[in-house]
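step 4 of 6: structure.
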Amino acid sequence: MRTLTTGFALLLAALGASASEIHPPAQATAGTAITIATSGSGSASFYLIGPASASKRQVQAGSDISVDSEQLEHAGRYTAILCASDGCASASFVVNPAAPNRLSFLVHPSRVPVDSPNRISAVAFVFDNFHNLVLQPESVTFSILPKDGKEVSARRNSENGVAWVRLSSARKEGATRLGTAIGHANEIRVVQQVAADACNLRIRASRTKRDLLVETDPVRDCSGNSVPDGTVVSFTKVDGAGKTTVDVPIKRGVAKVEMPVEGRARITVASGVVTGNELEVAGAQ
Amino acid sequence: MVMKRGLPILLAALTAALIVIAWFQSGAIGRREMRSASTPDQAVRLMLSQIQGHNFDAAYARLANKSDVDKNTFVREFNGSYGSLLTIASLESFDVWGLHTTDQEATMRAKLHYSTGVGPLDDIRDLKVERAGDTWKVFWPVDRAAKLPPQVIPVNYLRWDIISRGSGDDWGVQNVDSPQVRILSMNAIQRPDSVVLVGEVVNEDSVPAYVNVGATLLDPNEKELAQESSFDKIAHTLLPRQVSPYRIDFPGMRLDKIKSVRMDAKALLIAASADPVIEVNQQKLENDPLGKKVLSGELTNQSGQIVNIPHVIAAYYDSNGKVIWVSDGYVAQALLPQVPVPFAVDLPPDIAKNVQTYRVVVNHYDTTS
């Protein structure tokens, strides 16, 4: 705030006086040193007010003022002010972003069910080396790098520093890598394509020494992918002793549970909102 | 001189008076009267008051079947064990009444009111009391629960751990998304003193989720009337595709004042384990000894890990498959591997008559971690 106030005061002073002159280039590139020509004579103060910093130093009016590259890393409008004994002079110039060399790559979601059209959003923000958003259209390459498939890539022009694509998930589960590249920059993100809801959930029962062993067939989605281990399968048994329920996580592709049975029993299975087949067991069958 | 002696005398008299008042207030006079336990009621009351005062030696000494009851087991029945709910509870009060009395024996019913870390907990015990000379003594039921022999139970259930984006990572570096959860159903019910929202929520993702369901009631002008969450009336940790009932209570609210309800299911990605698996056996709707409608059953821990505090949540459905009520209850005992533990959760009688089926899930809390 103090810097701004000082800058504003100097600017007002510079507008009111016109003995010394300052001639910066109209355009500059972020992170590139420039030289500002001045006129006048004697010792003077040089102020450089940028979008993120302000500096002051003593210079000799009438000689060229060199501005280091570190002072011009932030793109935006800069004001150079020269104050000598005969008054102040100011001039503005624009620092443009440098060549694109960084990307921020946002991919959403990080997990997606298989075979979901346009479900994946990949957005790339184009920056230069100094974190300035490059607003000019630039060609950004997006690529899909499947684990066991051919790389597919497409180019998109950025608009106001942003380029994006929408992608569909594959029919096969597994991690897939999404990449984006521009200049020397490239970023990779991983999207986990997971099995969808269980499909054709089926159970079978067999007798053990004491109880009834109920287990599912390998649990797969409608595309044939194995539903991940840890997914809960709910077994329900109704017999003479009452009702028994147990939520069992899938382990090595199947879920199984041992339950005691009294007389005739009806056993059902479900996983989330998907229900499976129903078994009727009686006595020692 | 008179003043010098008067003050100590006054203080001594005051102290003595306070001790007498405290003695009366603590019920010591009652206990003294009951020391003889000349009736079955007095025998049970005396034993329970000694337990309440943590005087377990005296309570144990009053048992008629001391030789059959292990003292440590008797103490554990009230003090809890294996990090169970009773380890963070105290016996606050009790009610005793007779069920059946003869000259030589009686059956008494005791309702024990515990104050626990998760709220009040009631335990009903039917106790046999027997005359022994001039006094009555309590027969403590012998614990016949099967004990699991020492063994190694191999467990290879899944566990999910999370590596999140680091604080030093650049903006735009991908984080892991929150799990996808979905509210499957919601039903608003008018109860005599409140509006209750019941329903079910599912974790649709392939990773575990910590879920909480909130609701906001809106009036006809879309103005917020009240906001509540399911608090502990939900199984917060949901494994992939797991379904939990939820219940949200709005005390003092009327359904006719509400135009709409805004539901909000929040899910956080958490590290979790697929262990333990708890089987819920012998579920049935019945009347408890007090005549209340309850859903009772047995919990069996199928894993090798001890479950400290089991929490039973039951969803009740009508003939159309709509959730019409959700009730829950904490179980006082810890679940040891393979050892069945009974449970019962209340059900309002007016709702019980419409219940067609029900579903029980078991949540659990660790006191050791």
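step 5 of 6: annotate
 - The interface with chain A takes residues 156-158, 160, 170-172, 174-177, 184, 202-208, 239-243, 274, 277-284, 297, 302, 358-361 of chain B (CB under 8 Å).
 - The longest helix of chain B spans residues 2-25.
step 6 of 6: archive
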